[in-house]
Amino acid sequence: MKEFLRRLLYLRRGSRFHEELDQEIEFHIETRTDELEQSGVPRLEAIARARREFGHTPFVRESARAAWQIRWMEDLFADVQYAARALRRSPGFALTAIVSLALGIGVNTTIFSLTNEFLLNSPSCRNPETLAVVRLGGNSHLPMAEFRFVRNAGLFEGLAGLREPDEANWRSGEETHRLWASRVTTNFFEVTGVPVALGRPMQDSDQSATVISDHFWRNRLGADPNVLGRSLVLDGRPHTVIGVLPRTHRTFTGFGLAPDLYLPVEPDQTAVAVHLRLPQGMTRQEILDRLTSVGKELDRVFPQPDSSWTKDIRITPIEGFERLRSSSPAAIAAFFGLLMAVVALVLLIACANVASLLLARSSSRRQELALRLAIGASRSRIIRQLLTESLLLAMLGAIAGFVLNLGLTSLFNSVQLPLPLPVRLMIQPDTRLLLYSSILALLSALFAGLGPALKATRVELNSALKQSEHQVGQRRWNLRSTLVVGQLAVSILLLGVGFLFARNLLKSTTMGPGFDVDRTLWAYVRLVPAKYSTPKQIRAFIDREIEILRATPGVESAAINRIVPLNNSSATFEPFQIDNEPAKYRMRLQVNNVGPDYFRTMGIPILAGDEFKASDPDQVIIINESLARRAFGSRNPVGRTIRFGKRAPVVIGLAKNSKYFTLGEENAPAIYEPYAAQSLSEVNLNFMVRASRLSPADLVKPLTKALGALDPSAAIEVKPMRHAMGMALLPSQVGAALLGSIGLLALTLASIGLYGVLFYTVSRRIREIGLRVALGARPASILRMVFGESFLLVSLGFGIGLGIALLITRPLAMFLVPGLSPADPLSYLAVTAVLTIVAITATTAPALHALRVDPLTALRYE
Amino acid sequence: MLILRTLRQGPLHGYAIARRIKDSSAKGLEIEDGSLYPALNRMLVKGWLTAEWGISENNRKARFYRLTSDGRKQLEREAKEFDKLVRAIDLVMRTA
């Protein structure tokens, strides 16, 4: 290491070193001469002898210098200088290459940033690596009583509870808004060390305090400088703001979830996820053992009927891949995987562009390279120099790509996704991104530069030195053709996918969900849990609200329901039997609990039987067509019973199929049960309202007012159902936006590449064409030849691209609406048309030019 | 090793080192004087020697080389190696 530093110092001393060495050698020889002279040798002979004894002076000088040099570094330095000069000489080439690479690297790093932010970021807290989530008995959340018991057992010091996301009602002026809250045990901040920007974190004594988010502070409280100590009425009680979180706060849930504030848990109503600060010096097994013993105690004090707290005890880290594995659904991972693959292909196209540009350049530099080889440069030395050139290009491309990344990510940060939960991204460049960009730059330099460099240095000296360029008789099928074909294949694939998603978006926006979205409104009411502790209170509230809704002018009907289709879902896998038949059915059933008038309100036709009435007994059920077909075949289901274990409700109605969770699902079997059949402790109420006219937006204000009159502490949110379809359309919207723009980018890059390569290939043959014309070839046959060759390349690329596209887009079906297959012919036809036009344009211009060349001029070169 | 040994007694300039080596080996080692300098530079890189300019006995500017502690350690190491080698050869010669 020290040795390296000394060498570096030498680099700085440079010329002084040479002087010193010369002086030293001179001193040596002179001293020897003096000595010899003193012993009687004549002056001249003494000098000669001294020199002879010393040896070959230049050689000594060189070897002394060589001891110091870091050869490769000096070479690299020279190469970089040379490359920079070469690039400055052909700015058009350099710019095209750098822009290609910048686009390729830019989108790659952007998707990387997105994935990184979305899936892999650590929550804001002290030492996230020693924090973990504990599950007991397979439960992700522990009721507060059980949590307190575990904490009081005293086996662990750092135990905190978190419920995220939860809601809170904020009374502001005359209105009550629903806020997103994270409920925490009061020791949460102390255990996790979540930092605050203003004020102080929550402490054990804070029972009615809140720590608010930066976003809430700025957007809802107008960045009030005196916010600390301000009182907010939350869930009907005043809470004091004691702190503001930093702007960059990241929640434990991750995925960009950004609640408005942190509140203390409701002592009796909240169940919390248990967060544990792992005790130092304890092995995982020891911790598990302790948890098991806690579980045993829990079984004694809080016995569960069919389960044990000691079953399925798990410790999951709160960051990194392990957390991801245990929490994120496969579709999300698949989506990001798909994006990564797609942008990698874009980079591949960009590299191919640069490679074909380099190839074109190196063939016009053949003479220069041949000359250098001829005067003794080794092939590896020249390859190294050419690679330095592509590395320099890649570095510049990466820098420009980095700027592109910053622009794109800040765009992502400002986009508000239409999700039912508040999600905000805070993408910032970090070291991981820097590392990733450098690796990409290095790889693209190698990928784009190695092939051309190898090819350029494989020259026959004689012919290369003699003549600048020889085309006739050159192999037709070369690296460049392969590149064109590959580029075309990849861009067909990308464009195909992009078009597919665009078509998907178009189709899904026009597709009916099976219920009326134009005349319905969704009114959400959240009650303060502490005020409604019994199901009776909640039931009374619902009945009163339904009455109020029905009495509001412009309302045709209203109903309560548990799940709002396309926004929420609830499903069961519980096996069932029909009447007393032995056959057991097991399938994924969509479940909803709905009140009277639900089907009329939603505009879902009842095909047989009747819908729920207030007078119905609890044990009734309505099923949809899909379930009827699968379980009853052609028999009439009305009047039969469906037996779920001990429960056996009677089918009283058959509803038409509709969409439940996604627009993409097809004929999902579903059941509806009366709203009253569930345990009525939910304080989150969803009312569906049917307007008597077609413009339900007018009803939002009067409905909000009418609903809020009953209980001012209840938060009300009313919106037309049409505006609540964001979640259902999101996958196709995001897919269309991202993949469409990436596909377009790929098309641009591929078009540039295709144009450049075809143009170059044809223009290199101008002389040959001139010769042919001179020898009597007719223009038509020449055009046929040139176009024939271009089309061979293009059609080969199409063939391969289409083949691959049909094969690998099959898994995409999970993102697409029914009726649109991944092999949608229209998408691929459109892509083919676009690329064909590019190919024709790229071939025509130089071909016509070639035809106009005077045969004599062409011949003179030969 | 020869160079390091020569410098053990104190700093010397290049010519003096060459003289010492020649004298001590009683002209037994015929090396070109020039080849001393690349060797000296290699040792400077390794950090076994330091060099500074001074005035020689004949009143000329000369570069004096001085052994560093690293150099001293290296000399010990090489001397040990050499002893081992000599002993091994000695043993072989005696048993043969």
Question: How many strand units of chain B?
Answer: 3
Helix content of chain A: 40-55%
Give the strand tally of chain A: 23
* Poorly predicted spans of chain B: none
Q: Reading side by side through the largest sheet of chain A, how are the strands ordered?
A: 3-4-9-6-8-7
Indicate the multimeric state. Answer: heterodimer
Indicate the overall shape of chain B: globular
- The structural class of chain A is alpha+beta
Number of helices of chain B: 4
Main sheet attributes: strand count, strand direction, barrel closure of chain A: 6 strands, mixed, barrel
Question: What is the spatial order of strands in the main beta sheet of chain B?
Answer: 1-3-2
Structural Rg of chain B: 16 Å
**Share of helical residues of chain B:** 55-70%
Low-confidence stretches of chain A: 468-475
Spell the H/E element sequence of chain B.
HEHHEEH
Rg of chain A, nearest Å: 38 Å
Characterization of the model:
The complex is a heterodimer of chains A (862) and B (96). Chain A has 862 residues and is an alpha+beta fold. Chain A folds into four domains: 2-69, no CATH class; 128-319, no CATH class; 330-510 and 729-859, no CATH class; 520-726, no CATH class. Chain A has a six-stranded mixed β-barrel. In chain A, strands 14-16-21-18-20-17 form a six-stranded mixed β-sheet. In chain A, α12 (330-364) runs antiparallel to α17 (479-510) and α14 (379-414) runs antiparallel to α15 (431-457). By secondary structure, chain B is α+β, with helices and mostly antiparallel strands. In chain B, 56% of the residues lie in helices and 17% in strands. Chain B is built from four helices and three strands. Chain B has a three-stranded antiparallel β-sheet with strand order 1-3-2. The longest helix of chain B has 27 residues, at 69-95.
